[in-house]
Amino acid sequence: MAHGLQIRDEQSGYNKNLFCIPKHYEEDLERVFIPHGLILDRTERLARDIMQDMGSHDIVALCVLKGGYKFFADLLDHIKALNQNGDKSVPITVDFVRIKSYCNDSPTGKISFVGEELSTLNGKNVLVVEDIIETGRTMKALLSKIKDKKPRMVKVVSLLVKRTCQSPGYRPDYIGFEIPDKFVVGYALDYNEYFRDLNHICILKENAKEKYRMS
Ligand code: HPA
Ligand code: MG
């Protein structure tokens, strides 16, 4: 079974004043939870593990938008580096699916897919790249759509997995970090579209949830 880097419930991260934070978000963030550099280091190792398992056949990397775009871009940079420096290499193509299931800091209960056709997945090794898995509900819905296209293999990598009591136990094949049940933003993870332009993964202050709340 896959294990990510464990961030325990009592770990609160780092003093934000020791890092560079965009001025417009300074008042909104509690702590730096996962610094950008650590995200990149863990991503480099995930790339190696993924290529060991999937690198013997053409790969389609499927980015789950919008939250997955930073992780996707950095992960693919590492995968490309392996692909040009190793003894073996395989063609990698990319595809995108956009999913929205959150409003404010809660799931809306409906999952909307936008703009996917996914016919490129037939017969390929498909790597689904996701930012965060909480209940696994969204991922299960997406996987059933993908399997209809008869891929050769499907693996899921998620940068973050939240430890929640409501989790029905879905676990991706590769996990970057396992985190406590707190709402996090940054590195393309958003709160109502804000905070994607923040490099580090941070914990949001309660008053920031009010400030950026959608009615
Ligand atoms: N942050 C941002 N988006 C999310 C989260 C989170 O903690 N959980 C599910 N989607
Ligand atoms: Mg989101």
From TrEMBL:
* A GO term for molecular function: magnesium ion binding
Reply yes or no: does the keyword tRNA processing apply.
Answer: no
What's an example GO BP annotation here?
IMP salvage
Question: In which pathway does this enzyme or protein participate?
Answer: Purine metabolism; IMP biosynthesis via salvage pathway; IMP from hypoxanthine: step 1/1
Where in or outside the cell it occurs: the entry states: Cytoplasm
The UniProt record lists the EC number as 2.4.2.8
Which cofactors does the annotated protein need, by name?
Mg(2+)
Alphabetical UniProt keywords: Cytoplasm, Glycosyltransferase, Magnesium, Metal-binding, Nucleotide-binding, Purine salvage, Transferase
What catalytic activity is recorded? Answer: IMP + diphosphate = hypoxanthine + 5-phospho-alpha-D-ribose 1-diphosphate; GMP + diphosphate = guanine + 5-phospho-alpha-D-ribose 1-diphosphate
- What family is this? Belongs to the purine/pyrimidine phosphoribosyltransferase family.
PANTHER family on file: HYPOXANTHINE-GUANINE PHOSPHORIBOSYLTRANSFERASE
Could you tell me what this protein is called? Hypoxanthine phosphoribosyltransferase
